[in-house]
Amino acid sequence: DVKVTQSSRYLVKRTGEKVFLECVQDMDHENMFWYRQDPGLGLRLIYFSYDVKMKEKGDIPEGYSVSREKKERFSLILESASTNQTSMYLCASSPRTSRFSYEQYFGPGTRLTVT
Amino acid sequence: DAKTTQPPSMDCAEGRAANLPCNHSTISGNEYVYWYRQIHSQGPQYIIHGLKNNETNEMASLIITEDRKSSTLILPHATLRDTAVYYCIVRVDPDSSYKLIFGSGTRLLVRP
User: Which residues of A touch B44 (CB under 8 A)?
Assistant: First the structure.
């Protein structure tokens, strides 16, 4: 079974803090993704990475950065957390070598609250 | 990308088959049908996908009509743990963006 784990299920941070969200997958997948999910707005892609040290912006990269130093780990960084970044953050991975690139495996999510 | 239409909600009795429909009348020849679900407060879960043949795995079966304008996800023996929102997605594959976009989905309630 593919397993994607995220460092925290719930996180509370203060405005202006630097926040690190970690994601680890154990299936040797090339692609990794960070999404946020908000009621009424659905799933929105923040960043994705198709290889170590490679990253591409998604639809809403502002206020976020990412790091992929190892294949299994993809980190999302909120440089200076703001209240509008309160959300559910979801990490996913998928194998690039598979034809079926929308076969993505998600972690359990991190519910971040910024106060 | 082809748009999909799903009923907003459905229910079924535990142990019975749950049949979730999806209309995708503008689907093109190189677009696949994917199904995901999301249980409350959890990450989305990939279920199954197909192009034109019916598909089955340990979780579900996917029936795609011959004209490919609609499909049905079948959970053969629904359990309470299958209560979730189910999303039907149509995408070209492979695609440069890999971005998943969920519509509003069908909220399935499995009754005891």
Answer: 43, 90, 92, 104, 106
> Is residue A44 classed exposed, middle or buried when 0-12, 13-18 and 19+ CB atoms within 10 A define those classes?
middle
**Residue B55 with chain A: CB contacts under 8 Å:** none
pLDDT at residue number B28 = 87
Low-confidence ranges of chain B (pLDDT < 70): 1-2, 93-98
B38, B46, B101: which to substitute to probe chain A, counting the most A Cβ within 10 Å? B46
pLDDT confidence bin for A62, thresholds 50/70/90: very high
Q: Is B81 helix (H, G, I), strand (E, B) or coil?
A: helix
